[in-house]
């Protein structure tokens, strides 16, 4: 039945709408939406957004780039941190920027990047000891930021500078979700706002210093930043200073936070599913066999890849992709005005039971074949699909195989992990107990 009025999600409160639920229990709230219809109207204070999760509607929104663009107040908040990078720029800038950035992620460069991934995974796990409790969310973030810095800036950074960038990134990622959902967070003179603004200043100054150093030295170091400095668009123009800084910010985020989330979730899920753990250990024992996994080992690690894919199905880092309507339009019979915020919820899409039977179950063998068309979009879709998808999948697989080859992990805390929605869907702190594996050299 066609209608001009979408169903409004239940549980709203006067004035605030669904804001309390989005701040305190966002995923539990989202889980209530599929039964309401598609799209579902959600109220955030005086604002409205329309949530969709049916594959045909998600595809319609993401494919119609003229009718649905990355504009509006939400993207203005994101660009305050990321700038006008490839992950946040509107359609008018996207084609030019994608052509400039794309060469840095060509397949021929992946073996080179993978060597850095192997080295950093080996360095991280070399510091682990049997009987030690580590926060795998923090450890995964340390690993992926180290890889991002090393592949972006091969000359490396001073440890203090690298740690300052990592710390600033962590603060910004925690703060941006709150600012997107609660715009007034930037207006209140709270300690949290001061901390966020200091982190933003540290981030921008750090990135600017790195770029200035590269320009001053004028050496092609064969890394991503060197490629970006040398890149020209179809009119022969290089990236401007701000454009360059914006791309660096986007690539660090994509290379660090998204992959660390996938790795941290996979370590937890493997530990909670003994049958998956046994299959994973058997595979790595027949391949890398306790040594750090390398690029050339990947063809021998298909089950490892399936573990990562199933993790990304359950907990997609880009759990919600938003667009703003550029003109009055119709979506599943619902009339939307220009300027309406539409949220494609990949977290819900990839848990729909008609697409993935028993969707809450962790089953890597779902990916022994191809998933249903349009049902699995952890890297987005179409022209705005993440350029670094193969980079991230390679890093996550190498890191998971390296850990599984030497260590068995068990949750050390009590209770389930509570996902922490930031710009990506991250697990919160999750302490895990390390024990050396009998079949591999123990730490």
TrEMBL record:
Protein name as annotated: Pentalenene oxygenase
GO molecular function: heme binding; iron ion binding; monooxygenase activity; oxidoreductase activity, acting on paired donors, with incorporation or reduction of molecular oxygen
Record key words, sorted: Heme, Iron, Metal-binding, Monooxygenase, Oxidoreductase
Family of this protein: Belongs to the cytochrome P450 family.
Coiled coil: none
Cofactor(s), names only, from the UniProt record: heme
InterPro entries, alphabetized: Cyt_P450, Cyt_P450_B, Cyt_P450_CS, Cyt_P450_sf, Cytochrome_P450_monoxygenase
CDD domains: CYP170A1-like
């Amino acid at each position: 039945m066609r209608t001009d009025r979408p169903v409004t999600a239940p549980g709203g409160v006067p004035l605030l709408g669904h804001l309390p639920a989005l701040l305190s229990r966002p995923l539990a709230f989202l889980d209530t939406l599929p039964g309401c219809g598609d799209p579902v109207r959600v109220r955030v204070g005086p604002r409205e957004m329309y949530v969709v999760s049916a594959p045909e509607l998600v595809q319609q929104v993401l494919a119609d780039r003229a009718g649905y663009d990355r504009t509006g107040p939400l993207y203005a908040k994101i660009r305050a941190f990321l700038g006008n990078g490839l992950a946040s720029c509107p359609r008018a800038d996207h084609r030019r920027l994608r052509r400039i950035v794309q060469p840095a992620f060509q397949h021929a460069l992946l073996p080179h990047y993978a060597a850095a991934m192997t080295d950093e995974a080996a360095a991280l796990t070399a510091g682990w000891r049997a009987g030690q409790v580590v926060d795998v969310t923090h450890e995964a973030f340390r690993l992926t930021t180290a890889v991002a810095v090393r592949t972006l800036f091969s000359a490396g950074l001073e440890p203090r500078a690298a740690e300052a960038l990592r710390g600033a990134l962590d603060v910004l990622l925690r703060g941006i979700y709150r600012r997107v959902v609660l715009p007034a967070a930037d207006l209140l003179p709270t300690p949290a706002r001061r901390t966020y603004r200091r982190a933003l200043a540290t981030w921008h100054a750090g990135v600017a210093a790195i770029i200035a150093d590269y320009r001053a030295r004028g050496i092609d170091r064969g890394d991503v930043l060197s490629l970006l400095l040398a890149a020209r668009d179809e009119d022969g123009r290089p990236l401007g200073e701000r454009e360059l800084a914006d791309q660096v910010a986007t690539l660090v985020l994509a290379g660090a936070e998204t992959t660390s989330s996938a790795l941290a979730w996979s370590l937890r899920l493997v530990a909670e599913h003994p049958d998956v753990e046994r299959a994973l250990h058997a595979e790595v024992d027949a391949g890398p066999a306790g040594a750090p996994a390398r690029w050339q080992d990947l063809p021998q690690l298909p089950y490892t890849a399936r573990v990562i894919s199933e993790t990304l199905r359950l907990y997609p880092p880009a759990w919600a992709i938003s667009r703003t309507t550029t003109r009055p339009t119709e979506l599943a019979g619902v009339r939307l005005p220009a300027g309406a915020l539409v949220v494609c919820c990949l977290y819900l899409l990839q848990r729909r039971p008609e697409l993935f039977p028993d969707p809450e179950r962790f089953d890597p063998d779902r990916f022994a074949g191809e998933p249903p068309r349009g049902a699995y979009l952890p890297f987005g879709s179409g022209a705005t699909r993440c350029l670094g998808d193969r980079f991230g999948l390679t890093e996550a697989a190498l890191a998971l195989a390296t850990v599984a080859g030497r260590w068995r992990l068990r949750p050390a805390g009590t209770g389930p992990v509570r996902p922490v929605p930031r710009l990506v869907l991250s697990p919160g702190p999750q302490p895990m107990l390390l024990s050396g594996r009998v079949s591999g050299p123990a730490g």
